[in-house]
């Protein structure tokens, strides 16, 4: 049922997005082009300074928001975004388009805004422009009409989005969402009823109570309807009355010539504080998935975010999620949360409109009064109020409402995805005793022996999350365990799993199991190296692993770049497994580091004193699973990434067996089996196999299965 609603919700989103790009283009051109030079100059200078001042306030607020997120344990399954090459932001390409139409086709919002503003400014100096401006104005009106038509579908669209989100949202997800909603609500109220109105009283003779009395009714209407447009006329009128109450010359207060009539409509071409407050969702989304934005990412976030919000929240959020490699499905969560936060955003936007209009008009008419003591007192009080609010939310949710961390249970409870009716399998938990003898010789090939015995024996590594491990029910599971089940079933063989002795990491020791005829294949897949092929045979590579480090959360940024790591002295790295080829590669990348091959298991390393070593070297795919079990640790993937091809290890002379498995692996690649298992075990995409939550439609009425 939720899948149907998801399609309806997606259609609604796309209908809303459809007129956005053309609207930015024509509305900016018509809004700026209709101004004359004198009016435009005054508005641009005084209005621009006022708008920038308000943006500085909201930027400070956005930087403060992440401090409100509680200290909850968080981790996530492996995501391909972890190993994507780092995208550096080219601000020239972002803001200065060489081809504006390419920018429109690829929804590069900042470039579209730059081009539109440039054309609008050029029209100011063109005579006989009224016909063209009128065409653009009517085009803008038609696009706004489309938006209004789509808005009439809001009950259906919003219901579909909310219902789909509610149907797929877990309780622990809802816990995290309420933190963001409460943060947004508290900050919106502080901005609307303290910071913004007090800013007027500090810089003009207008009294605080007069401002509140004047705007309380339109603010209530804006909050109730979540629509700023319906209160614009009354906000303009009330703002004029507030300015009239200041004792100035009659000629300076002529309503017909009031800059308010231009400033407020023109301000709709620029993101309001209410809109920009929604930018707080991006650091929240990053925290939500367990990869908070680093301090170095905030300048890009703020610049691209403000420019992106010229297009509106949904399109800008999509752009920013992609920019910072946050999973795209967070967009649905954003739209769901906006149902609750949009009213608070509209409240701030309404107050922003009043403040921008009054302060810019007073600046143009010379009515601004700078009183340093008052400004300093107001600034300190506002900062303390915001800090106290954000700090209180952080403290309350950290210590009084701590989150129940459940990701480790999800990993521990996973069952075989496709092996619901697996081949009969015997799972041994005691490793065999390996005799020091040469490989057994026989006239039969290894595959002929397997067929004769009707048995495939797979050696496995214990605790190799998420490829081979025992779940909470005591069953041997994992991606490569499941691959072994599928291989045995499709070859019509019984299956036996035989453990390797704990602490066996040397390739020669592993080869003894295979060449000594104790097992026929080793799982999980291991790194292909020239040295290993001297003693065993590999299938061809069917997947890659990525060289990564497991570090403490606070150290993650320190391990994000190879060049920065090369500058570190006394760097000690523990690697659980002796793979000379990649150890040499690691030493080549970090010549000053001490690389220690250890026989300690990964659990011991993860709970060890952090002073013993700086990082554990593991593939990112394994590391992500271990950080789910030990969430105080994090995965760091240095850029540029180092990719490691892997394959299954086979006995040295098992050529026919290798040929068969190679063909089988090709088939599993083509039919999507490997991809679906990778998504399930490594990336944790388990929604398709989760038991649906109880519902009236399914469990009572029986309308759906």
From TrEMBL:
One GO MF term: symporter activity
Record membrane topology: Multi-pass membrane protein
SUPFAM superfamilies associated with the record: Periplasmic binding protein-like II (SSF53850), Proton glutamate symport protein (SSF118215)
Keywords from the named record: Membrane, Signal, Transmembrane, Transmembrane helix, Transport
Domain Solute-binding protein family 3/N-terminal: from-to ranges: 455-685
Gene Ontology cellular component annotations, sorted alphabetically: membrane
InterPro entries hit by this protein: Na-dicarboxylate_symporter, Na:dicarbo_symporter_sf, Solute-binding_3/MltF_N
Highest taxon, organism lineage: Bacteria
Compartments, record wording: Membrane
PANTHER family: AMINO-ACID-BINDING PROTEIN YXEM-RELATED, MEMBRANE-BOUND LYTIC MUREIN TRANSGLYCOSYLASE F
Protein name: Solute-binding protein family 3/N-terminal domain-containing protein
């Amino acid at each position: 049922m939720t899948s149907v609603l998801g399609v309806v919700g997606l259609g609604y989103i796309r209908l809303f997005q459809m007129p956005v790009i053309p609207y930015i283009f024509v509305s900016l051109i018509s809004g700026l082009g209709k101004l004359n030079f004198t009016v435009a100059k005054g508005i641009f200078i005084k209005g621009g300074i006022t708008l920038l001042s308000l943006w500085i306030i909201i930027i400070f607020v956005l930087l403060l928001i992440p401090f409100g997120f509680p200290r909850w344990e968080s981790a996530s399954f492996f995501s391909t975004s972890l190993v994507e090459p780092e995208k550096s932001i080219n601000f020239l390409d972002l803001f200065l388009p060489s081809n504006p139409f390419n920018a429109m086709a690829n929804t590069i919002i900042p470039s579209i805004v730059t081009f539109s503003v440039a054309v609008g400014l050029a029209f100011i100096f063109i005579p006989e422009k009224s016909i063209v401006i009128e065409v653009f104005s009517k085009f803008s009106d038609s696009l706004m009409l489309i938006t209004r038509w789509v808005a009439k579908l809001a009950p259906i669209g919003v219901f579909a989005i909310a219902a789909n989100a509610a149907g797929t949202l877990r309780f622990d997800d809802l816990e995290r969402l309420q933190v963001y909603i409460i943060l947004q609500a508290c900050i919106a109220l502080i901005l609307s009823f303290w910071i913004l109105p007090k800013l007027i009283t500090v810089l003009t003779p207008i009294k605080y109570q007069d401002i509140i009395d004047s705007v309380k009714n339109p603010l209530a209407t804006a909050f109730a309807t979540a629509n700023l447009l319906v209160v614009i006329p009354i906000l303009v009128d009330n703002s004029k009355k507030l300015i009239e109450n200041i004792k100035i010359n009659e000629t300076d207060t002529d309503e017909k010539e009031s800059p308010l009539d231009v400033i407020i409509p023109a301000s709709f071409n620029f993101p309001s504080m209410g809109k920009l407050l929604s930018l707080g969702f991006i650091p929240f989304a990053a925290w939500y998935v367990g990869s908070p934005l680093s301090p170095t990412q905030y300048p890009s976030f703020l610049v691209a975010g403000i420019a992106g919000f010229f297009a509106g929240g949904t399109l800008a959020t999509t752009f920013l999620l992609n920019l910072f490699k946050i999973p795209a499905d967070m967009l649905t969560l954003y739209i769901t949360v906006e149902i609750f936060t949009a009213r608070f955003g509209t409240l701030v936007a309404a107050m922003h409109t009043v403040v921008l209009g009054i302060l810019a008009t007073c600046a143009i008419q010379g009515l601004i009064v700078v009183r340093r003591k008052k400004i300093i007192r107001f600034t300190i009080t506002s900062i303390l109020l915001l800090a106290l609010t954000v700090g209180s939310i952080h403290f309350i949710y950290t210590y009084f409402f701590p989150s129940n961390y459940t990701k480790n249970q999800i990993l521990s409870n996973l069952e075989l995805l496709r092996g619901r009716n697996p081949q009969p399998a015997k799972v041994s938990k005691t490793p065999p005793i390996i005799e020091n003898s040469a490989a057994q010789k026989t006239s039969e090939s290894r595959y002929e022996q397997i067929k004769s015995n009707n048995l495939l024996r797979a050696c496995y590594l214990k605790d190799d999350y998420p490829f081979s491990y025992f779940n909470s029910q005591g069953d041997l599971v994992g991606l490569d365990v499941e691959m072994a089940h599928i291989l045995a079933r499709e070859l019509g063989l019984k299956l036996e799993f035989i453990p390797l002795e704990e602490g066996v990491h040397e390739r020669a020791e592993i080869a003894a199991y295979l060449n000594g005829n104790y097992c026929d294949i080793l799982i999980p897949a291991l790194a292909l190296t020239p040295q290993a092929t001297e003693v065993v045979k590999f299938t061809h590579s069917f997947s890659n692993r990525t060289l990564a480090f497991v570090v403490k959360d606070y150290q993650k940024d320190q391990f994000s770049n190879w060049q920065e790591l090369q500058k570190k002295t006394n760097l000690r790295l523990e690697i659980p497994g002796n793979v000379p080829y990649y150890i040499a590669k690691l030493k080549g990348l970090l010549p000053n580091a001490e690389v220690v091959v250890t026989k300690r298991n990964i659990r011991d390393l993860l709970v060890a004193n952090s002073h013993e070593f700086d990082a554990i070297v593991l593939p990112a795919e394994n590391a992500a699973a271990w950080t789910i079990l030990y969430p105080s640790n994090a995965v760091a993937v240095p850029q540029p990434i180092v990719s490691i091809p892997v394959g299954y290890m086979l006995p040295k002379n098992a050529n026919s067996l290798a040929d068969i498995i190679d063909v089988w692996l090709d088939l599993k690649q083509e039919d999507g089996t490997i991809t679906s298992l990778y998504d399930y075990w490594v990336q944790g995409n388990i929604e398709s196999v989760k038991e649906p939550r109880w519902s009236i439609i399914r469990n009572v009425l029986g309308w759906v299965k």
